Amino acid sequence: MTLIAQITDLHLRPRGLACYRVSDTNMMAERAVRSLLAFSPKLDAVVMTGDLTDRDDPREYAVARALLERLDVPVFLMPGNHDSSEGMRREMAGFPGMGETSDGKIHYSAMVNDVRLIALDTHMPGRPQGQLGRDQLAWLQAELSGNTAPTIIALHHPPALSGIMHMDAMGLLDAPELAEVIAPHSHVQRILCGHLHRPIIAEFAGKIMTLAPSTGHQVELDFSPQGAAMFRFEPPSYFVHYHTAKTGLVTHMAYVESFPGPYHFFADEGVTWPGDETR
Asked: Per the confidence metrics, is the pTM higher than 0.90?
């Protein structure tokens, strides 16, 4: 069994500052780390699909290091549009994959038990959209052709559209080129993304794309063509990707906060139902 948690869009700020004036993303990221540490059975790895920081500020990366170094499993990072490739490589040195490329895009692969993770870099300096670029796509093609282990591809910008117009306008510019690369490879079992601050499941290039919610604030669910860029404080959460040879990859959503329970299933006193004996 392999358990990989996916957190995304932490938008960490310098200590004492809120994100967008009202979102205490540092506090919510702290609670997420506590939840990951308490997860049972123990996780095998954590994947962070971009926007680790809010403004690519060295003070924000310092907060990130202090938080993520507490996790006692490998933590795999990749930049989002609020980070930068250069800043993440410099400030998060020592985390897996950060030293694999000395300049340009951060991309690397790693084995987590029997699952192969491929991390990609969609950051475009000064722009909210994402792009992989020809060199990184060529590298990905070689990686997928050279190893047929069950594979997860992780990147910040989702390649599939969501219907939330203002976020789709900040999507992955070379999504068609990515589709050409990954479509022939049946061992690609999941595409992991962030960026949209919502739990979203979609098909892309014949694969399943799972877009994880933020550990902080969530984007307003608004499909109107003129929907404004707004957010609200829905329950922060993250994904847990479960893999066995029998099940393949199965994705679950876990909540950062604690809720009442767990409770045993049982009927009212004196009432039995078919199948109760198995509960």
From this structure: yes
